[in-house]
Design brief:
heterodimer; A: MetI-like fold; 2 domains; two-stranded antiparallel ribbon; 14 helices; 2 strands; 72% helix; flat; B: D-Maltodextrin-Binding Protein, domain 2; D-Maltodextrin-Binding Protein, domain 2; five-stranded mixed sheet; three-stranded antiparallel sheet; 18 helices; 45% helix; globular
């Protein structure tokens, strides 16, 4: 009787065949994910030049607290995140709604065109944007030709314009990616809901705001979380657009494009390598992502009731 | 660390067994990382050809990256502790030498037993010495010169004779005249790069650090004067903003700007524009207005290092020793072809150093650079030059906007103090 009471779940837990099947994957995860995570956590308590590291307790935390460059990187990252993510998601949502309209011709073409930036390499498009936005680049000369500006915009030398350029670049690269999620979700919305709304005389703006958006809430939450994580880890664009030049250069004018990930990179590969401190800053990102994701889930759950 | 190393080695050995077999099957081919196709890349190939004449099996693979990529790839490789995929010989800029030597003990092979260092410029040997051992094969000097377009200067009403004994104030005055008359800016400048500050500063015998390597920011007349000149240049509007190295080089090779003040290693790049033959001149750099300042400085300069993980370490050391420490004729060739002012003192008595260069209108430029080199003030680059340099570069836009030099120095000092704890 007792063996029956423990049930199939219990038997499954000791099923040697099952364990053997997952063993290779588990081993790889342990070696390449769990071990490095633990190792980097241990590393974040160490200080020293390069490979000569010694245990420093909370020494790195004290350094983090007093580090103006870290504060700068943190605030830059938040500027990018707070401005860029809403702009991008709104754009993606509007584009998805427009391209979901069966009355529009060449929908497939437009969808492909808007999604296309996502298949380009991050480095390739960053280099391209850099050459487009230099002082005498194509963007400034176009704006001058059509008479919008009289002096070239200092994209590379003014902190505000430098951030604007980065935001334009990321938005170009990622809007299509988020749009695809919304499009897919929109196709799953029952058409009869819209029909009922139309019969009740709800205008198209209203149908979008009060039907489409609430129905897409899980997807919007998902894209918000992934975009947040992506922006907090922003690296390729800022490194390639502003980080070039010499080993001692700043990350954009007045370090205006110094993000947390770029700072971690500099701490490890550009400055006197301080692996311990860099590990601690990466744990700051982990911490931020966790908190922000939690807040977003919490907000979404509240309004679900 | 050991556990992770063993793990990684195990996986790598397993995966790369076939690759290793290929590597050992070929007679040792030396891989070299360096960064300037008109300069050290071409020079290393020349050195390889010379060595191959006496060693027929010798093969050299010179890999050409951007400098910042060489440094970061090297640092990544050293940090991983794996020697596969690493070069046998790598070129390191002098500013970073002590950083690598101190951060990665045992990563570089000491050369003191094999190489006679008494023949080299002492400052080059000194900056690659750690705990009594020397790790580098000293290569080029970064003695600076003021390269200018004679045709533009003359169009603005000046003569080459006026370019001697300049101050930076006079330089700015000339720059304004040049732009008014020719429409060309005087120089190209990357507003996110503090290279010019380093040139100004060292010409006054100052650096970001004192002789003992401690940060020296607030009470440093040389650095202060350097930032003042940088501010004047930024505010006078006499420069063309450059976004990165390629843009900067393009500005003067294309004839867009009238001059460039930088290390002698740029000579090969300047001369690559064959159509500009005879239009260029070289003068001593303008002088800072502080006591002890000279009209000579240094920017960059680099040395070769052998990695101790190299499978062909002995061959690499022998190669460097045979060519870079002994071959006087080699130094004459790289001087004339590439503008490389080596740091082997005996090379300076060679014929090429007294020759005139037609590209620069027949001026004895090598003799001049040799003279300036002997005047370059010696400073301690310390191990944190990149950190302070970044801090300075980040405040260049403030200087341009008119923030006082003292305020900038205070901000830099605060940032550096927190970073170098």
């Amino acid at each position: 009787m007792s063996s029956l009471a423990s049930g199939p779940a219990q038997r499954r837990r000791f099923d040697i065949n099952g364990w053997l099947f997952v063993a290779p994957a588990l081993t790889l995860i342990a070696i390449f994910m769990i071990f490095p995570i633990l190792q980097s956590f241990w590393m974040s308590f160490q200080q020293g030049r390069g490979m000569n590291m010694t245990f420093a307790g909370y020494g790195n935390l004290v350094k983090l607290w007093n580090d103006p460059l870290f504060i700068q990187a943190l605030s830059n990252t938040f500027i990018f995140f707070l401005i860029q993510v809403p702009i991008m998601l709104t754009l993606a949502l509007v584009m998805a709604a427009v391209l979901n309209n069966p009355a529009i011709r060449f929908r497939g073409l437009f969808r492909t065109a808007i999604f296309l930036p996502c298949v380009t390499s991050l480095v390739a498009y960053s280099v391209l944007f850099k050459s487009m936005f230099v002082t005498d680049g194509i963007v400034n000369s176009t704006l001058e030709t059509i008479g919008l500006i009289s002096d070239p915009i200092p994209w590379m030398t003014d902190p505000f314009w430098c951030r604007t350029m980065i935001i334009i670049a990321i938005t170009w690269r990622w809007t299509g990616y988020n749009m695809i999620f919304y499009l897919a979700a929109m196709q799953n919305i029952d058409k009869s809901v819209y029909e009922a709304a139309r019969i009740d005389g709800v205008p198209s703006i209203g149908r979008f705001a009060f039907l489409t958006v609430p129905m897409l809430k899980p997807v919007i939450l998902f894209t918000t979380v992934t975009s947040t994580i992506g922006t907090l880890q922003l690296f390729d664009e800022v490194a390639n657009i502003t980080g070039g030049g010499s080993a001692g250069g700043a990350a954009g004018p007045s370090n205006s494009a110094l993000t947390l990930s770029l700072y971690i990179y500099n701490l490890t590969f550009k400055f006197m390598p301080s692996f311990g401190y860099a590990a601690l800053v990466s744990y700051v990102i982990v911490f931020l992502v966790a908190i922000l994701a939690f807040i977003q889930f919490y907000l979404a759950r509240e309004s679900d009731r | 660390m050991n556990f992770s190393k063993t793990l990684r080695r195990g996986t790598l050995a397993f995966a790369g067994a076939s690759l290793l077999a290929i590597v050992t099957a070929q007679a040792a081919e030396l891989t070299v990382w360096c960064w300037d196709p008109n300069f050290n890349v071409a020079i290393m190939k020349e050195a390889g050809d010379r060595y191959a004449k006496t060693h027929p099996d010798f093969k050299l693979n010179v890999v050409d990256f951007a400098k910042v990529d060489v440094e970061q790839k090297l640092q990544t490789g050293l940090a991983s502790g794996v020697s596969d995929g690493m070069p046998d010989i790598v070129l390191i800029e002098d500013y970073g030498a002590q950083k690598y030597l101190q951060s990665f003990p045992g990563a570089f092979a000491p050369l003191s037993d094999k190489v006679d260092y008494s023949g080299f410029a002492p400052y080059k040997v000194q900056l690659a010495t750690l705990d009594g051992k020397v790790y580098s094969m000293p290569f080029d000097s970064g003695v600076t010169g003021f390269y200018y377009r004679k045709d533009y200067i003359e169009a603005a009403g000046y003569k080459p004779a006026d370019m001697q004994d300049l101050t930076w104030d006079k330089y700015i005055e000339i720059a304004k005249a040049v732009e008014a008359k020719t429409g060309h800016k005087m120089l190209a400048l990357d507003p996110n790069d503090a290279g010019y500050v380093r040139i100004f500063m060292q010409s006054a015998g100052s650096w970001y650090f004192d002789k003992d390597g401690n940060p020296n920011i607030l009470d440093n007349p040389g650095l202060k004067a350097a930032l003042e000149v940088e501010q004047k240049i930024l505010q006078a509007g006499i420069y063309k903003p450059a976004a990165g190295w390629a843009d900067w080089v393009g500005a003067f090779t294309s004839g867009d700007v009238a001059s460039v003040t930088t290390g002698v290693w740029i000579t090969g790049t300047v001369k690559s524009g064959a159509d500009q033959k005879g239009k260029w001149g070289v003068a001593p750099i303008p002088k800072l207005d502080v006591p002890g300042a000279v009209a000579a400085s240094n920017l960059g300069g680099s040395s070769w290092y052998v990695l101790s993980g190299s499978k062909a370490k002995d061959e690499a050391i022998d190669f460097l020793n045979e060519i870079y420490a002994k071959d006087i004729d080699f130094y004459q060739k790289i001087l004339v072809d590439r503008g490389a002012v080596g740091s082997l003192l005996a090379a300076r008595t060679g014929t090429a150093y007294s020759s005139n260069d037609e590209f620069f209108g027949g001026e004895p430029i090598w003799q001049n650079f040799s003279d300036w080199l002997s005047k370059v003030p010696s400073v301690n680059y310390g191990v944190f030059t990149n950190e302070v340099d970044s801090a300075i570069a980040a405040h260049l836009p403030d200087l341009a906007k008119g923030t006082s030099v003292d305020d900038v120095l205070k901000a830099v000092d605060a940032q550096v103090k927190s970073q170098l704890q």
